[in-house]
Amino acid sequence: MTHRFPVKEIALQSGLSTATVDRVLNRRAHVSPQTHRRVHDAIEELVRQENQLAARGRRLFFDIVVEAPNRFSREIRAASESLLDDFRPAALRPRFAFSESMTEDQCCRILAQIGRRGSQGVCLKGRDTEAVRQAVANLKGKNIPVVTIFTDLPGSERLAYAGLDNDSAGRTAAYFMHKLLPRQASAVLATLSQHAFQGEEQRLQGFRTELRRVRPGLQIVDASGGGGLTPQTQREVTDRVRSGPAIDGVYSMGGGNPAVLQALSDAGQSPNVFIAHDLDEDNLELLRGGRLTLVLHHDLRADMRNAFRHLQAFHGIGVAPQVSRSDIQVVTPMNLPKPV
């Protein structure tokens, strides 16, 4: 495995021992494929973060643990790594643990591993369950702060939340749905990736509350649980629309929108309004093609900057942001951001 980094740096980045990293690099026997992957990923991360290795300020390892479709995780990684020079002279070294589907037990095991090996902070996008809350409390007991990102664990031992104001986002979606749908519309489809993601659940509650206020007769059909992944999302939507009412509008909180559109097309339905979240590659393509009405977007770089600032402040570096909830940006095919 070609590389130019000391074994110690690879071990710090991967969270493995130097002995294990040495076994992988020298292709010795009895090393699992998962361990090979962790070392390979760590080297790729070091390549992208090479400037940080030479930084002379305090070194801080932040672990970013995320359950999300790969398209969103890639955006989080890019946003995080684009900020590193902004925090000099401190040397921020993010380590990533991403999974498209992460059970409660898997998430807790990852957080427990971080607690054993040590970390200066964790950015967590995970499910709001009692076991995950306890894992966060265990990290706090080890003096490892946790900032929740994009979806919160309210009332837990987390240090702070950084991300979109999800209740406001849901109410904003209801406002546009009410204004754009014809008066004779009878039903809208709402899709979440997981009800256990508290942020998406807040979006749904805000959407439902506001829509019931302005359109009390409009039915909301819930097609959630697909994880934002194509096969599962398409199956969930297909099941809900097969024998349900005609769908006039869609509010997609959890992604997988090509699958949502395909399921509706297969059912012979073409909604008048489709409101989605986040400017990932799927939604950009759908916006350009005029298949989405609008996207409610928030600046991932600003969110990750706020998360890192909270963690730095915990260690006595700088000041924590006073406001760490993102403003909503409304993006249509007419105001797409220019490519960087």
Automatic annotation (TrEMBL):
SMART domains: HTH_LACI. GO terms for molecular function: DNA binding. Keywords: DNA-binding, Transcription, Transcription regulation. InterPro entries: HTH_LacI (IPR000843), Lambda_DNA-bd_dom_sf (IPR010982), Peripla_BP_I (IPR028082), SBP_2_dom (IPR025997). CDD domains: HTH_LacI, PBP1_sugar_binding. PROSITE patterns: HTH_LACI_2 (PS50932). Residues 8-59 form the HTH lacI-type domain. PANTHER family: LACI-RELATED TRANSCRIPTIONAL REPRESSOR, TRANSCRIPTIONAL REGULATORY PROTEIN. This is LacI family DNA-binding transcriptional regulator.
